[in-house]
Amino acid sequence: MSAHSESGPALTMRDVAARLGVSPMTVSRALRGQRGIGEATRQRVLAEVAALGYRPNKRARELRSGGPNELIGLVVTNLANPFYSQLAVGLEQICVGYGARVMLGSTGEDPATEREVVADLVDRGVDGLVVAPAGHDHSHLGGTRLRDLPVVLAASPPMGIDVDCVLVDDFGGTREACRRLVARGHRRIGFLGLPPSLWTGSERFRGYAVALEEAGIALDERYISRHRGDSALAEEAAREMLALPDPPTALLTANNRNTVGALRALRDRTQDQEPVALAGFDDIELADMLHLPLTVVSYDPVELGRAAATLLFERQASTAPQPPRRVTIATTLVDHPAPR
Amino acid sequence: MSAHSESGPALTMRDVAARLGVSPMTVSRALRGQRGIGEATRQRVLAEVAALGYRPNKRARELRSGGPNELIGLVVTNLANPFYSQLAVGLEQICVGYGARVMLGSTGEDPATEREVVADLVDRGVDGLVVAPAGHDHSHLGGTRLRDLPVVLAASPPMGIDVDCVLVDDFGGTREACRRLVARGHRRIGFLGLPPSLWTGSERFRGYAVALEEAGIALDERYISRHRGDSALAEEAAREMLALPDPPTALLTANNRNTVGALRALRDRTQDQEPVALAGFDDIELADMLHLPLTVVSYDPVELGRAAATLLFERQASTAPQPPRRVTIATTLVDHPAPR
DNA sequence: CTGTTAGCGCTTTCAA
DNA sequence: TTGAAAGCGCTAACAG
Predict the structure, then answer these.
(1) For residue B5, which residues of chain A lie inside 8 Å, CB to CB?
(2) For residue B37, which nucleotide's C1' is closest to its Cα?
(3) Considering only the top CATH level, what class is A170-298?
(4) Ranges A260-274, A303-317, B100-114: which has the least confidence
(5) Element (H or E) spanning A180, and its range?
(6) Class of B13-63 per CATH?
(7) Which of B126, B289, B303 to mutate to test the interface with A (most CBs of A within 10 A)?
(8) Where are the domains of chain B?
(9) Which residue, among A288, A271, A295, A26, has the nearest Cα to B289 in the 3D structure?
């Protein structure tokens, strides 16, 4: 029977001190490896602590010392979205290196919920926040109400507020994908996108528009659909485009939901119909196992999470005010050929 | 300019009380909606609190009151795995209903890391833990060391410890999938599985074995491969099986990694080769868009997370000791036809 | 109904 | 090198 097996109310530093006939301060000093304590005493204390299985109360420690709580808040719309869960993984990777943990908050894309969640995380003592914002106005994240905590926005640049942010190269990635389609001879390229109110929506559309302009191809409203990222709507829009008298020979999709919709729309086309090329933002698991070839704009959300954490800890370390920084993650174009 | 715009050191209850000329207790009572305070006073206090943007310090409150911290720890191997991120979503859904938040810990499948993470979460004052364990011995989660906190194991039953757990019907789901293959006339069914040391590995294999036994089919070692869930290894194993003199006419895979491996192995088969049927545990996004038909054992990890949270809060509510409970989530068999 | 006292578990500050 | 006192922000317990 080891000494830990005793249960009951958690041990306090006083208990440990009492058993050793020393003051709590001695235990405290030994535990924190603070100098100004005899080596022999320290050993005796540490041995007793180990034997008792005593663990100091972090909350009390932080309350008194006023130091950082080594806690980062992560606010996302929906963790089931692989983009956000991978972001969380990257964030946590860096956090553990700083001895920090991640506290989670989901907003379900509702700005009001986001506000509450952020406030709650702040009340719980996070040292900083990574927020993938639900709305397009971010002034509620203003430093003042947040006890001047550092905030990093993810996947969207700050609007109405000056904070750091980490972004994906939405514009560059989409332009490159569109260029590839153009290089393969496509002139009628349909765009299935996100609403312009979303940063990603407007940036990815801009990539499409610029690539077409570079190729001397005029934008054609009939080939452009911009709605929320719902695969069913995207599928419908794709079907409509493909039913035009002069249908697009290629589709460019602004995110994986749109890509899925497009894939479904292309699913039932017969061999004798003109094949339609497809390129899209966001990689897709098993893309190489689909029944048709697919080109995707790929990037690493884990890296995005790491970048966000790094900005946060750097900001935390420096007391001097620094201008807001912006980190943009590169994308790569990946061709997934179809199985024969 | 609203009153919040003042920054500086966070306000305390004392500050609010001082401005109103009342005692901190009055503010405390008003804030918690405690009765035994005049309605007029309460309004006055709440108005001032709102005007000042004062937010009580939750950590101090919890330290003093000794009550629950409304915090649940979630320990998983890798949040990038959709199974775990969906589990997290379900857990959080229930938590918000109880005013609780989720603190995250990743183990990377390392039992030693798991131990540390769990200890850290406990030190940080979680009221309970949901753990998807990395190893197969769980005695380090024993109540004693955890300050008698409630623990719920996810996806694995407790070994060497008595706690609640939530499981997927690994056995039943696999048996059903295998039965379906048998019903379609298959007699030589290859199994691509997980090592028997994993609970899911042994249960899913058992489902396979029982279904075969029911059909009067003897197990054949040549058709059985049990390794870690790595799709490359699974692909290799599948290729070997298919190269046998009398190859299996169907493959049954024990998880999505194995399914992906099998799909890749089947990818390059030509039209004139015998088609090989495929069934597997875990649903796959876009399964209906693959180049071959696939039957999957589907279930809802979000539901698993909800169940875990529910067990946790129920256990927390009842002081009387209750025997460990086990919740098993049902699976359904889903047929994904291939596109033509 | 409101205020005072004490103390949650720990650490800062100061004294020995 | 060690200890005693005081208090982080808040609330239980007991006054008034």
Answers:
(1) 144
(2) C1
(3) alpha beta
(4) A260-274
(5) helix A170-183
(6) mainly alpha
(7) B289
(8) 13-63, 71-168+301-330, 170-298
(9) A288
